[in-house]
């Protein structure tokens, strides 16, 4: 929100960095990479992190994504940097060493072991006071069977970092492997006393008790394991121990002496001198359901005192030095506890081989990774009037770049309204264009859009599962009737059956056979997915229902995918014959579940039958030279459904937007999934099933998209960037209605503006799809709102709404007052923004040149923030290529705009003429006599209109019948 409200924010690099780290912690890899890129492009004079530190985190992101070789190469490139600090060098070496240790794809085991030891020793040398490298070095020695070396490394690690529960847990493992159970017990107790939620230590302690024939204590430890107790094998062990304890005999006084003290006794036993000096006793062990207490954070007064002491670190008495160290230690402990809680809540494992979370996810802790924190100028106030925030304690440097405000006069408030003509607007802007925060296309004073809550009132069970809006077209007259377009525009999603047959569309032009014969080497993007029924979504282990929909991308050709598609069908035929069942038809696979009933398959059954499938997606049919017969055939459709039409906003963009104003084809086998989404910038979409199989669709009305987003966030998924497959029952329980229907071969599915939808093939089929933009106020307003919300979310709008609006103003006459008002507001605000940008540029003596626009030239986006840049392009050379910047990013890169050149795409006189000419059109009343329909705004263009579809369409107040099976 800070980046949206103030694009010129001087700490934008830090904002992007923190967003990137948070998204990385939540495993949203794509958007994390976007923010790392934007943080690198922002200026770093006043940033908390250097560019090298940023490169380290970007490399770690590659590792977290599973791109281990790319991560290794990135780490090794960093180690060659001459300006690498010792602290960062230690981080890089630790991470690289641990990567060699655990990644089998990086070479032979012996070579990897040598590389890991070498890297970790370099990390220890680079940062001798840190115990992290020593701990990982001990892990490597232990894995190689070098017990003595491992123990020395662990012991030295404890000397450096006394409170590391991971180290004590690993020491316990070493003792347990050497058959020293009492020493192992004491080490595990140290670990769990330091971190009462340490799953690995509790689990290992349970294993130790079980090996010593003490099932009651083992059960208590396993239960205390927290997150680890949810593991499949551990759950089975807990069930076994529970059953065993239920039938176990009462303990006898004369029984065999126990090898270890019980867990309650062990917690309070005196520990050996070496261990007791490192692990002070604390509260009794937590019992199931009881959460351990975390260290309290510093109070405001303590924070102020710490800031003052750090500021005067060279003039402190010994008592003040001691106090500063105590406060700093307490602050870091509280921060670490808070980070640990967040990490566990996000589901990151800390047990077993994942006890190395230190190396698994090196999200820099701002509280404890600034080695020169005491040398930083923190705050100039005394403790009595200090007002610094916690940020000062985190070691942030003082801002160096000061951006002066753009030319504004607070004594002359600026007001703009759509009744002004272009001269009035430009004259006002010459004196005061207002701050850039007031240039929103939604209008001055309008805050950023936000997801709507689930609208009241609460729907009934019948309303939460509405029947799919359905219409049958019998003739060409019906197809071109205006009632058909009205029907589609009135429903969130609709099925039009019989349209392709009535218009005699040759769908065979889009069949796999025809595609192979035409262009066999044409590119196909492939998504590898887990095969499962449409109303279920399981994690890769097949044990837990989730929303995350895993999908791995690769590429192939039409010919190769056709072979896979045919082979998949033949394999299904063979399996059916072997089972003795009826052979499947191409129209329906084994996963067809269109009646909406739950399949009832449990986890064990699913795990046995699960397999992977390959979905051929995003086949580009935009090249008219290659696909002329196919694209010509689609011209038979009514105007509101055509790829290109005067009544389609996207036809006025003036350049290609792949998959939106061009056709894309999808090649499917049963189970192929298109995860949940809204169309780009909320535009409508057309989808035709070529066949021969069916597809199953789910849809949510646009008014409820905020409810879907809430549940995505609850499941830890990014609504815009993530891949998710919703649970219909969970949505309905949240008050969100869900349509569900089957799309048969030849059926056209109309997805209205903003409708959330997801699709799964139930048979072998191809689909074609594209977007359309009806010239309505609702479509335009929803597109513009999403355009602004995408800015808040740092998500690129692939429809350049400003460029589109100006093209629409040139090309069409608008008679709808609501549409005219929305477009006029956008024109006003962008004209104002263009004038303000040019004023700021000229005030800094930046040369302005006319550039113009070539025919079909794509719209421009900022190379830093990816927002649309219209009219005034600020260009600077970067890495031997010229990169376009918006004004905010250009000023962040250089406050004086030094090195920038401004290119104008239009003449201001031309823009003024377009703006003044865009007035509300008032059509003349029709002459008396028979009604005639002309090409007015939003009406389909085509042959003479037929009679009303009264026999086909249901009146709005009449409930629509369910789609026939």
Automatic annotation (TrEMBL):
GO terms for biological process: regulation of gene expression. One of its GO terms (molecular function) is metal ion binding. Keywords: Chromatin regulator, Dioxygenase, Iron, Metal-binding, Nucleus, Oxidoreductase, Phosphoprotein, TPR repeat, Zinc. It is found in: Nucleus. Its cofactor is Fe(2+). TPR repeats lie at residues 165-198. Residues 931-940 have a biased composition (Low complexity). Gene3D superfamilies: 1.20.58.1370, 2.10.110.20, Cupin (2.60.120.650), Tetratricopeptide repeat domain (1.25.40.10). InterPro entries: Corepressor-Demethylase, JmjC_dom, KDM6_GATAL_sf, KDM6A_B-like_C-hel, KDM6A_B-like_GATAL, TPR-like_helical_dom_sf, TPR_rpt. GO terms for cellular component: MLL3/4 complex. SUPFAM superfamilies: Clavaminate synthase-like, TPR-like. Belongs to the UTX family. This is JmjC domain-containing protein. It comes from Arctia plantaginis.
């Amino acid at each position: 929100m800070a980046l949206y409200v103030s694009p010129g924010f001087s700490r934008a690099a830090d904002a992007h960095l923190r967003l990137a780290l948070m998204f990385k912690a939540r495993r949203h890899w794509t958007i994390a990479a976007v923010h790392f890129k934007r943080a690198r492009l922002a200026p770093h004079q006043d940033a908390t992190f250097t560019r090298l530190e940023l490169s380290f985190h970007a490399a770690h992101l590659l590792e977290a994504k599973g791109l281990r070789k790319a991560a290794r190469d990135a780490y090794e490139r960093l180690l060659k940097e001459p300006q690498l600090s010792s602290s960062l060098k230690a981080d890089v070496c630790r991470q690289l060493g641990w990567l060699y240790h655990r990644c089998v794809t990086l070479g032979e085991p012996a070579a990897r072991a040598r590389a890991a030891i070498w890297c970790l020793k370099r990390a220890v040398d680079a940062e001798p006071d840190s115990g992290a490298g020593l701990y990982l070095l001990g892990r490597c020695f232990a894995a190689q069977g070098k017990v003595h070396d491992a123990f020395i490394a662990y012991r030295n690690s404890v000397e450096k970092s006394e409170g590391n529960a991971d180290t004590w847990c690993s020491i316990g493992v070493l003792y347990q492997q050497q058959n020293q159970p009492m020493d192992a017990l004491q080490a595990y107790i140290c670990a769990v006393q330091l971190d009462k939620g340490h799953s690995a230590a509790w689990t290992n302690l349970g294993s130790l008790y079980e090996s010593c024939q003490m099932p009651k204590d083992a059960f208590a430890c396993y239960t205390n394991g927290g997150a680890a107790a949810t593991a499949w094998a551990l759950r089975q062990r807990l069930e076994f121990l529970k059953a065993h304890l239920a039938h176990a005999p009462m303990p006898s006084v004369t029984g065999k002496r126990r090898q270890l003290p019980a867990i309650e006794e062990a917690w309070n036993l005196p520990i050996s001198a070496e261990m007791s000096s490192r692990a002070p006793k604390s509260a009794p062990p937590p019992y199931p359901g009881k959460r351990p207490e975390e260290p309290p954070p510093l109070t405001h007064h303590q924070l102020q005192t710490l800031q003052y002491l750090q500021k005067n670190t060279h003039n402190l008495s010994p008592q003040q030095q001691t106090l500063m160290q105590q406060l700093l230690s307490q602050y870091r402990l509280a921060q670490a506890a808070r980070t640990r809680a967040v990490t566990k809540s996000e589901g990151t494992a800390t047990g077993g081989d994942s006890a190395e979370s230190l190396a698994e996810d090196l999200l820099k802790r701002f509280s404890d990774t600034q080695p020169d924190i005491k040398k930083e100028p923190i705050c100039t106030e005394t403790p009595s009037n200090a007002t610094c925030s916690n940020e000062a304690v985190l070691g942030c440097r003082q801002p160096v770049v000061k951006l002066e405000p753009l030319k504004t006069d607070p004594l002359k408030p600026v007001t703009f309204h759509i009744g002004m003509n272009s001269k009035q607007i430009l004259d006002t802007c010459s004196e005061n264009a207002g701050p850039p925060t007031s240039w929103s296309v939604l209008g001055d004073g309008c805050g950023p859009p936000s997801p709507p809550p689930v609208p009241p009132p609460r729907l009934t069970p019948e309303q939460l599962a509405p029947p799919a809006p359905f219409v049958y077209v019998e003739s060409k007259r019906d197809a071109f009737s205006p009632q058909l377009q009205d029907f589609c525009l009135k429903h969130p999603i609709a099925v039009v059956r019989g349209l392709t047959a009535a218009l005699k569309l040759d769908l065979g032009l889009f069949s796999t056979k025809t595609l192979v014969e035409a262009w066999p080497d044409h590119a196909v993007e492939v998504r590898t997915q887990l095969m499962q029924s449409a109303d279920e979504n399981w994690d890769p282990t097949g044990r837990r229902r989730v929303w995350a929909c895993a999908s791995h991308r690769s590429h192939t050709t039409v010919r190769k995918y056709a072979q896979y598609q045919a082979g998949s069908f033949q394999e299904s035929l063979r399996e059916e014959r072997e089972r003795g069942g009826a052979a499947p038809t191409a129209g329906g696979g084994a996963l067809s579940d269109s009646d909406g009933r739950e399949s009832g398959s449990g986890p064990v059954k699913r795990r046995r039958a699960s397999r992977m499938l390959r979905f051929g997606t995003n086949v580009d049919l935009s090249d008219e030279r290659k696909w002329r017969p196919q694209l010509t055939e689609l011209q038979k459709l009514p105007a509101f459904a055509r790829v290109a039409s005067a009544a389609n906003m996207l036809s006025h963009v003036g350049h290609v937007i792949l998959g939106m104003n061009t056709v894309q084809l999808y090649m499917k086998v049963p189970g192929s999934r298109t995860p949940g989404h809204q169309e780009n910038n909320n535009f409508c979409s057309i989808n035709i099933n070529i066949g021969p199989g069916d597809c199953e669709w789910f849809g949510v009305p646009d008014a409820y998209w905020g409810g879907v987003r809430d549940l995505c966030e609850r499941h830890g998924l990014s609504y815009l960037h993530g891949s998710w497959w919703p649970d219909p029952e969970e949505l309905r329980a949240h008050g969100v209605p869900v349509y569900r229907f089957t799309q048969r071969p030849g059926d056209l599915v109309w997805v209205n503006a903003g409708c959330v939808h997801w699709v799964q093939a139930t048979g072998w089929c191809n689909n074609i799809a594209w977007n359309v933009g009806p010239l309505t106020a609702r479509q335009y307003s929803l597109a513009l709102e999403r355009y602004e919300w995408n800015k808040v979310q740092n998500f690129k709008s692939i429809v350049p709404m400003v460029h589109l609006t100006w093209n629409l103003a040139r090309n069409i006459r608008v008679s709808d007052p609501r549409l005219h008002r929305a477009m006029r507001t956008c024109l006003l605000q962008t004209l104002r923004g263009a004038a303000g940008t040019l004023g700021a540029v000229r005030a800094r003596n930046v040369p302005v040149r006319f550039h113009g626009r070539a025919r079909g030239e794509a719209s421009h986006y900022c190379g830093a923030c990816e927002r649309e840049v219209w009219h005034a392009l600020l260009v600077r050379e970067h890495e031997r290529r010229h990169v376009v910047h918006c004004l905010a990013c250009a000023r962040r890169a250089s406050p004086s705009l030094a090195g920038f050149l401004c290119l104008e795409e239009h003449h201001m006189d031309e823009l003024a003429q377009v703006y003044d000419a865009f007035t509300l059109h008032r059509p003349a009343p029709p002459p008396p006599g028979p009604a005639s329909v002309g090409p007015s705004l939003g009406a389909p263009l085509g042959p003479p209109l037929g009679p009303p579809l009264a026999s086909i369409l249901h009146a709005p107040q009449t409930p629509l019948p369910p789609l026939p099976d």
